[in-house]
Amino acid sequence: MAIPCPESLGGRAPMGNPSLEPVLFVLWHPDCLEGAVLAEQIYSWFRPGSGLGPKVIFRSVIDWSENADLLVPLAPNQSAMVIVLIDENMVIDARWRRWLDTLVQQVGSWTDDPKLLLLPVALNNSALGFPPLRHLNFIRPAPAPRDAEPIQFIYQAWLTNERVRSLIRQLTDALCRAMGASNEKTRIFISHAKEDPSRPGAGGTVPARAIRDYIRSETQLEAFYDENDLPFAQDFAEDLHESLADADAMIAVQTERYASRPWCRYEFSSFRRPVRLHRRSNLFGLRPTLVVEAMAAMHHSRCIPEFGNSPLIGWDADRPRDSAELAVITALRNLFLTHVHRRQMAGMPDLGTSVSVLKLSWLPDLSTLSHRNLGELNAQVVVHPGNTMSSIESNILRAHRWRDVNFIGMADYDPATAMVGWQAPWPRGVAWSMSLEGSDEILCKGMGRQHIEEMVGRVTGLMLRRGCTLYYGGNWTDWDGSKGASTDRHAPYRNMLHMLLQSSASEQRWPERSSAASSQSQSSNNGDSGASPPVINHLAWPHQVERRRQADWVNLCEVVPLSLEASGLPKAAKTDDAMYRAIAMSAMRRRQLDAAFNQVRAEVPAVSARIAMHGKLRGYSGFAPGLLEECMLSWQAGHSLWLLGGFGGMTKWIVDFLLCHPGGPENLRDAPSASDWLRAQHPPLRDLEHRLARSLFNSTSDQSGAFQTWPLWSLDDLMAHLSECRQAVQTVGLAQALRTDLTDADTQILMQTSDPDTVVRLLNLSLTNLAASAHV
């Protein structure tokens, strides 16, 4: 029996303009203690990882001195979905009231405007009288218990916190409605195997009924459940076909009996059939599926290929209602993401008629790629949602019939580099310069810690796919980011090295011995998996890392500690002395660029480029901001220098200095003025400089006990080098002075943008050009 394929997702017209890509804005008052935490939970839920989901922009810390617009300008093909978290602080703040009142007046009949959806959230009862929005029906999360601790920065708080869970549930329902059908209910098909009386617990009736009952009693959705929806004494196959064709999403309850039931497998495989979304289009869609794993303890079954890479959640038999709720809102979230990815793909440019491009609105897997609808297209490039899949995932697909295909994530797709961008290797060393703390500066740009961590992962994946080795000078302190949970928006970011290693883990490669060609290809992309680690970590004295932790990451990271002697310090140096620690940090930064010193295997490439992002203007430990010293060392060494100034911090200050004209601000006008300004930002620096001047450290006398053989740059020395760099920019242009191999215009965009997509696109283009230049 052939099951007819629906010609669109759910077979119904979407609400509003189906070509508009949604952008989520989350607004809260900076004095709202739980605002940042709830915003991060919203981000985690609607951006589940790997770059999937819509863009999410935070708006909280606002510079009201300017004509503030809390919604950044949108592209013509984008729409705004604005989530406003309202508490008493926002209610009494006249600036927020005026801005929201202006927004509502500007859009007029906003409920009919496909460019805007406003979702007010009442964090307490004081929000209900908020003048600009009091005519709207508020989303009301469950109240927090009176004696409850503030919601902390914890992962997946919706699993344990009723307040967060109720907020996520209502937002998911509202956003899914906005993206789905305008009149008809969202339909969820529940696929399960019946209980076997002789083997209690082997079937899935109990979880399936709990999911059905939750849908019908707690939501405005519609559930297909065969016991209730297949008429008696009728040909059930035809009714089943119609129900499958009409469903928007499927929840499959995986139990011991599911894999052995032909109809269960038939339902699932038929539902996950790729469908061409428009006639003669290269865009294919797939309706979302969710697998609920409800195997009884100590029972066994087998996996089935039809599941592909469907999301999977576990069933808690002791908490059936909570499990059913999580399954339903996850299925709804996946349906929302399906609509988002479909709209994102529809607006992407093609590569012309000479290249065959296949656009998928889901993450590809062997099960769906084997379908004849896709196999007949002979695609050269497959574009999928989110970030480009890891090397491990793409190698699995290439091991079958997709060997010569470029798999590119939509977030990284660029017509200029789609055919060569991920193939041309650039096996060089790239040093990361980055330090982050909770910062109003980051929030002012519409981002939080998750935005930054996601971008670090994207850039890391790009560099490793191009065969680069990453260098990072930093310690393993606060390894898991657990300095203490906090509701403070200034809470620390996760350890930068941890972010690099987590991102590198999915890019590990294994040796291919099937053919000389594959071996050669593997060699050109960072070689054998055991040849060299993707990350080199330099540790300044006196920091150390225990051997067990090094062993845990031995395939990903090689630790190069800098000893007391190698730092040029006297034997009597004290570990808690700020001056000696500052000297050791400068020594580590120099040794990082010294190929002869690095105690790593010979095949590891030396540093040839540096990425600089954020960095501390104050609160650092050293004789100058560390990022400034690292950038000047690389510039003097002739390295490519990618300055990501759009994310603030020391990097932005360097960019502003390089682009400053003679009549610019005083702190950027010349090197002496800039040095004085930087000293004023970090008062402890003057004491360190005075101590160093009084010490015998720079003396060649044996009485000092020092054996330093390298020059120690002061802040004034670094500013002199930065002035030389600015002179080079004014003489030969940005691209040539910083050796980016981009145009001057693109180099300036890279230096000033805060858009992660633009950063990755230009870095990829720069790597492509550098790789081409290396072979000329």
Description:
With 776 residues, this protein is of the alpha/beta class. It folds into four domains: 21-179, Rossmann fold (3-Layer(aba) Sandwich); 182-346, Rossmann fold (3-Layer(aba) Sandwich); 357-412, no CATH class; 429-774, Rossmann fold, CATH 3.40.50. The chain is built from 27 helices and 20 strands. The strands form four sheets. The chain has a six-stranded parallel β-sheet, sandwiched between helices. Strand 5 (187-191), helix 5 (205-218) and strand 6 (222-224) form a beta-alpha-beta unit. Helix 18 runs parallel beside helix 19 (626-636) and helix 26 (744-752) crosses helix 27. The radius of gyration is 29 Å and the shape is globular. It starts with 20 loop residues before the first strand and ends with a helix. Residues 1-16, 480-492, 510-530 and 699-707 have low confidence and may be disordered.
Please tag this protein with its features.
single chain, 776 residues, alpha/beta, Rossmann fold, 4 domains, six-stranded parallel beta sheet, five-stranded parallel beta sheet, 27 helices, 38% helix, globular, LD_cluster2
Explain briefly what this protein structure is.
The protein has a 6-stranded parallel beta sheet with strand order 18-17-16-15-19-20, with helices on both faces. The protein has a 5-stranded parallel beta sheet with strand order 6-5-7-10-11, sandwiched between helices. A 5-stranded mixed beta sheet has the order 8-9-12-13-14, covered by helices on one side. It is built from 27 helices and 20 strands.
